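QA checklist item 7 of 12: single-chain prediction sanity check.
[x] sequence parsed
[x] length recorded as 150
[x] structure emitted
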Amino acid sequence: MHTKILWIVAIAMLAAAPARAANVRITRDHGGYVEEYKAKYEKIRENGDRVIIDGICNSACTLVFGIVPNDKICVTPRASLGFHQAYYDKSFTFGIKVTSAEGTSELMSYYPDPIKDWIRTNGGLTVNMKKVVNGVALWKIADPCPEEFF
């Protein structure tokens, strides 16, 4: 009987223990629906997870910088970020890229000042992808990862 009680107590303690923060690694993310990314990153923020950008992070993927705290985001030398204007789902616009001023404004509202500054310095958001690849420009936007994350 004591063994059974000990097992119940042990299981209850494990279930009640706070979840340990995890590392989320982004390696090849070309973006997608903004609402899905907002929900994904809000969950990551709530869990206290660290985001390691270790490759491509384009379009809606870059919302991570406006939702997850900056001290929980780092970039490796393989990281690249891509920004462009928001546009409507091409399946509703017969394959034509129709930009959304409202959607673009919403994207910009999420970005912290270093990203807004980079975008402005590079001519603002356009329909074409503008990329920040490794190096000094990237490190002005995000902290480099410690070597153990490479």
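[x] summary fact logged: The helical segments are 2-16, 34-47, 64-67, 101-110, 113-121, 136-141.
[ ] second reviewer sign-off
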